[in-house]
Design goal:
The chain contains four helices and no strands. By secondary structure, it is mainly alpha-helical. It has a domain of 54 residues.
């Protein structure tokens, strides 16, 4: 499945489950209470999936700080800079 279609499914799932949660919250008796709970849990799952779909994947590891310091030549302080 394409990454774009996964993102769209996650968005549609979030909207649907949130709408169902809001609709069932108006009358919290009988079966609506169970649907409300299930839709709330589904919303949490879709939101977590949506979050992980938008994480940036690193292309390559950044250079380490120690390596960067080794590359810089050390400059000797002159007599004027010491004072």
């Amino acid at each position: 499945m394409q990454h774009d279609s996964k993102q769209e499914i996650a968005k549609i799932g979030m909207v649907t489950s949130l709408g169902l949660t809001v609709a069932t919250s108006l009358k919290m008796k009988g079966i609506n209470k169970k649907i409300h709970f299930g839709a709330g849990m589904a919303f949490c799952g879709f939101a977590l999936w949506h979050h992980y779909l938008y994480q940036i994947q690193p292309c390559s590891a950044p250079p380490k700080q120690k390596e960067m310091k080794k590359d810089k030549p050390k400059q000797k302080k002159t007599d004027l800079e010491k004072n």
